[in-house]
Design goal:
It contains 21 helices and three strands. It is mainly alpha-helical and 415 residues long.
Length: 415
């Protein structure tokens, strides 16, 4: 009887192993044929049989399950399945599927990244951030994944996760800078960016000249800025200031960091320090129109109209197409009207007061006419700028220029 049961057990085991091998072979063929739905159904229907199989078959089962989950973009489940397969093999002294998983790791991560990019493009920043972080966990030497995960987290408003990601990047001195390659075509004189292989080919060609390399812009200023802004958002201004000052110790002339610090001071309401930092930024980047524009804003807010006008005019000189500069400059000019009108209203009816009134009236008209060229230029840049058109209409109506009043009234009504 004992022999009978032993034979029966051996038969059952042999049958079970045969069934496992058969199902795994079929599942493998389905995966190879990209019939992932059918493969998943087969694996799920036989999960009890295959999970309890001996290590080499159980490892194969989890490997196939991971491949199917990967194809279905169920990346978290795929990672779990692959890890289980590797764990089973490690305990059993095997490595067949571990090697396959490791060899295909780059392709797996690439699938994750592509799906995250697609989610980002659809505005699903939260899930994209999680997937990018998963990619980072799979390859923690690639800090680009962590950077993009943090960026997506910020876009989704998930500052709780974004902050530690950015802090890790800062601690690791991540810049994200890569070498870029440039070549100038002799016949056109136009420089273009090329890949490294093309660059090496062009170096041997007489058709290209001025071959050069350069580093892409560092991402560190943005990282530090976001750390600071998250701290500000959390009400932790001390931590925000410290994060910027620490960064500027090793990069004191970095305009991006200077502007980050300036931006923090303006958020804290310290316009004087903001202005000083903007001047520092201008010393490093004297042709940046936005720096002068921002100084115009600060000086205008402080009531320093003449300085504000000078900064706005310099900004226009450097960038004659930025609409806000014209609008702000005209607004600063017209701010002087309130003082003139107040003085006009305080006058009496004496002869001297009447003369003073006429002087103030002329001064007011001159003020209007000073603003007109900037407003008219703004309308040329953007013919649909209702604020500029309305202001011009009101100016010409006030000074009695009927023709121009009607002109801008008609333009406004046609918008």
């Amino acid at each position: 009887m004992k022999t009978y049961y032993s034979l029966l057990l051996a038969f059952v085991v042999a049958f079970s192993v045969s069934a496992q091998k058969k199902q795994l072979k079929t599942a493998q063929k389905l995966v190879d044929a990209a019939s992932f739905d059918a493969a998943l159904t087969l694996l799920e229907d036989n999960s009890d049989l295959l999970r309890s199989a001996e290590p080499k078959y159980a490892a194969h089962y989890h490997y196939l399950l991971g491949a199917v989950q990967q194809a279905g973009k169920e990346f978290y489940k795929a990672v779990e399945a692959f890890d289980t397969s590797k764990s089973i093999e490690a305990k059993g002294g095997l490595n067949k599927y571990t090697q396959l998983i490791n060899v295909s790791k780059a392709s797996f991560i690439n699938d994750i990244i592509n799906h995250a990019v697609d989610l980002n493009s659809k505005g699903n920043y939260n899930e994209a951030s999680k997937l990018l972080y998963l990619a980072y966990e799979l390859d923690d030497e690639n800090l680009d994944y962590l950077y993009f995960s943090a960026s997506s987290a910020v876009n989704s408003g998930d500052y709780e996760n974004a902050l530690p990601y950015y802090l890790t990047l800062k601690e690791k001195n991540y810049t994200g800078s890569v070498t870029k390659f440039y070549a100038t075509e002799v016949s056109t004189g136009i420089e273009s960016e090329v890949d490294q292989n093309t660059y090496n080919i062009y170096k041997k060609s007489k058709d290209f000249t001025n071959l050069r390399t350069g580093l892409s812009e560092s991402r560190l200023p943005e990282i530090v800025k976001n750390i600071a802004l998250i701290h500000v958002s959390n009400g932790d201004n001390e931590a925000a200031m410290k994060s910027i000052k620490d960064a500027r110790k090793f990069s004191p002339k970095d305009v991006g960091l200077i502007l980050t610090e300036a931006d923090l001071y303006i958020k804290l309401g310290d316009e004087a320090r903001f202005g000083a930092l903007m001047q520092e930024a201008i010393a490093q980047d004297p042709t940046n129109a936005m720096l002068y524009y921002n100084l115009g804003v600060v000086n205008g807010n402080e009531g320093k109209r003449d300085k504000a006008k000078d900064y706005y005019k310099k900004a226009i000189e450097l960038d004659p197409n930025y609409e806000a500069t014209y609008l702000n400059l005209s607004a600063v000019i017209l701010e002087g009207e309130a003082d003139i009108v107040e003085e006009m209203n305080s006058l009496g009816t004496s002869a001297s007061d009447n003369r003073k009134y006429d002087e103030l009236k002329s001064k007011r008209e001159a003020l209007f006419l000073e603003a007109v060229p900037y407003l008219e230029q703004l309308v040329k840049i953007n013919p649909k700028n209702a604020d500029a058109i309305t202001t011009l209409k009101n100016i010409f109506g006030t000074i009695g220029d009927t023709a121009n009043f009607k002109k801008y009234r008609d333009i406004l009504e046609a918008l």
